Amino acid sequence: QVQLVESGGGLVQAGDSLRLACAASGRSFSTLYMGWFRQAPGKEREFVAAISWYDSSTSYPDSTKGRFTISRNNAKNTGYLQIDTLKPEDTAVYYCVAGRSLTPTASAWTYWGQGTQVTVFS
Fold it and tell me: What is the mean pLDDT of residues 83-111?
């Protein structure tokens, strides 16, 4: 059993940066892929980024590549999402995920956190 808890969200001004954290419990986290999704009001969950557990290879969709950086520290059982130059359209609940596959398909991820709200105003 793996539990994920996100933190670091909040109300920020456009152009600011945020670093979200995902604290994981469970010894198997270090051998799982980790990723992030987000969900804006009235929209489906959107793939944000993912990272391998063994070689740190990363995956980003075109919509986030450049301003978003995913990382993890297995020694601390923690994952991170750095968001630079925040835009109002980044406003969403951001979810940390973990699973046995690296994929942009939400249903393929086994473990989900409860999410952290990011609100960007201009």
Answer: 96
